[in-house]
Amino acid sequence: MRYVAIGDSFTEGVGDELPDGTARGWADLVAAGLAAEGPIEYANLAIRGRLLEPIIREQLPAALGLSPPPTLLSLNGGGNDMMRPGMATPRLVELTREAVRRCAEAGVRLVLLSGADPSDRLPFGAVMRRRGAVLTAAIAQMAEQHDIVFVDVFNDIEIRRAAYWSPDRLHLNAAGHQRVAGLVLTALGHPGAAHVVDPGPAESRRVLAEARYYREHVLPWLHRRVRGRSSGDGRTGKYETWTPVAANR
Questions:
Q1: Mean pLDDT over the full length of the chain
Q2: Which of 32, 48, 67, 235 is 20 to 30 A from 59, comparing alpha carbons?
Q3: pTM here?
Q4: CATH number of 2-203
Q5: What is the pLDDT of residues 96-147, one digit of tens each?
Q6: pLDDT mean over 64-69
Q7: What pLDDT does residue 10 have?
Q8: String of b and e for 211-222 (b: at least 16 CB within 10 Å)?
Q9: Domains of the chain: which residue ranges?
Q10: What is the pLDDT averaged over residues 176-199?
Q11: pLDDT at 85
Q12: How many beta carbons lie within 10 A of that of residue 176, not counting itself?
């Protein structure tokens, strides 16, 4: 099997950093889970901050152009689009449809994922939830029409709990990525209970904690937007060529 993942920070693995600072994430964990069934090579072209159009226009051709070609490709995108004014859901659906068509033409099995829903604790979270719900429903319908595996992380209620999220409240932490990996492996026919964390203490939402959150996470994000910058500027995919994966990775 040759598995390639494309997408944004969700697929790159931001929030699940190893001791050396390298992002791991659910796609790496899926590759390791698949390796338990037999030899696998893995590539991950996802880059944080990417909108869906660059994912389809740049990462998808690079993924399908790998030599030898992939046998399995996972796609998630649209989360960054949802944080931009004027998001056009029909355009995102059409871009996803293009990916479906190109993978079918190439004979590559496609897995579509919706991202986890971070909106409970984000500024303007209600807007993001409405946009995410509409996009997720459209992608789910498309997957059903084309008999494609669809992993609906957006509507997974468990993963909305604070215990699965990083301090920035936008990216999953290690537990969140582990849960997504379990959902994906189950959808691919490798059954196993998705990761569940203990309830733990209630999340602090005191005034000082909220002020610190806005200072450390929201303001830097707004500053990048004003400057037209992205967290992924200058970055490349972390595994741009086929990499053998061990089952205990």
A1: 89
A2: 32
A3: 0.86
A4: 3.40.50.1110
A5: 999 999 999 999 999 999 999 998 888 778 998 999 999 999 999 999 999 9
A6: 98
A7: 97
A8: eebeeebbeeee
A9: 2-203
A10: 83
A11: 82
A12: 28
Q: How far apart are the first and last CA of the chain?
A: 16
Amino acid at site 165? W
Burial per residue of 126-165, b for 16 or more beta-carbon CB atoms within 10 angstroms, e otherwise: eebbebbeebbebbbebbeeeebbbbbbbebeebbbebbb
* CA nearest neighbour of 108 among 245, 242, 4: 4
Distance CA 92, CA 37 (A): 34
Angle, alpha carbons 6-151-239 (nearest 5°):
20
Instruction: Please tell me the predicted confidence (pLDDT) of residue 234.
Output: 73
Helices of type H across the chain: 9-12, 26-35, 52-54, 60-64, 89-106, 125-145, 174-187, 207-213, 219-227
Euclidean distance between CA atoms 91 and 53, whole angstroms: 9
Token digits of residue 116: 């986890």
The pair of structure tokens assigned to 25 is 């994430």
